[in-house]
């Protein structure tokens, strides 16, 4: 859109500027006609005072014709201006979200049944992962479950309803950890699996959120996996879940009472959280480590990651327009009323 008024009113544009240009042309043509008529107007001579007195009424007629001429010019201008649709330009900033591919890796080893988080570690993690997914917009997300080996529960998708459905089905029974090779905690293998699953050809940011309550005791060494993630531009956020001193792990019920896992000497078995490795994975990959000893800190961890990976950036300016023709239209109607009222009076 362009506007002949932009020099005086920088925020104003005309949606149909050609009407305004035609209106100016009509005013010029009308002015040229008046000038030509004035040149050919006959000169009146009065031979007597009595006839000059009769011509006093000519002064009112001349003033009336001048006012009519002025009104015609104004009406042409206003009519053209209204047809041109004057608008106010409103410039705003538009933001968009950078696309992010996110895998959420959840430890499903039996130690995640520990009840230091409510109702237990795995159910608390699932709840806050669900909230994390609900808050996504424009990002692809997928779910990896792991114990002794990682498995893709849901590949990257924009369908958050599918993610929520499959997430609700995750449990420590998702992987049969009695099967050879599936027991333990393979953090390094999770990082390697994520590298395979992220698409290297796109330029979307790659993020892995890894939630575990134990130390890595099988598979690829975690720090080698961290180096692989860094080489592939995969940022890893690690969340160590559960109390540092560990917690007993319920493995069944006998005579109405819970049975907890025991060491060979009969003492209660408690998982050990290896924070140093999780911190180092996050540092190497450019991510961040979070310690979640209870539900509140676990929730805060996911909320912090959500904020860190919003990816908002300015992509340009948005321009909208507000119509301003109502004022000129009302003035046009008012001036038209004056003009036609004036036309009703005789020239003498």
What topology emerges from the helices and strands here?
Elements: E1 12-14, H1 17-39, H2 49-54, H3 57-83, E2 86-97, E3 100-107, H4 121-134, E4 140-146, E5 150-157, H5 160-168, H6 187-197, E6 205-212, H7 222-231, E7 234-241, E8 250-254, E9 257-260, H8 275-285, E10 289-292, H9 295-308, E11 312-323, H10 326-343
Parallel strand pairs: 3-4, 3-6, 6-7, 7-10
Antiparallel strand pairs: 1-2, 2-11, 4-5, 8-9
The main β sheet shows up as: 6 strands, mixed
Helix content: 40-55%
Query: What is the string of helix and strand elements?
Result: EHHHEEHEEHHEHEEEHEHEH
Strand order of the largest sheet: 5-4-3-6-7-10
Return the average pLDDT rounded to an integer.
83
Radius of gyration: 40 Å
| Total helical elements | 10
Structural class: alpha/beta
Give the strand tally: 11
Low-confidence stretches: 1-8
State the end-to-end CA separation.
48 Å
Strand content: 15-25%
Can you describe this structure?
There is one protein chain. The chain contains ten helices and eleven strands. The chain is of the alpha/beta class and 348 residues long. The strands form three sheets. A six-stranded mixed β-sheet has the order 5-4-3-6-7-10, sandwiched between helices. A three-stranded antiparallel β-sheet has the order 1-2-11. The chain has a two-stranded antiparallel ribbon with strand order 8-9. Strand 6, helix 7 and strand 7 form a beta-alpha-beta unit. Helix 1 (17-39) runs antiparallel to helix 3 (57-83), helix 4 packs parallel to helix 9 and helix 6 (187-197) runs parallel beside helix 7 (222-231). The protein is rod-shaped. Residues 1-8 have low confidence and may be disordered.
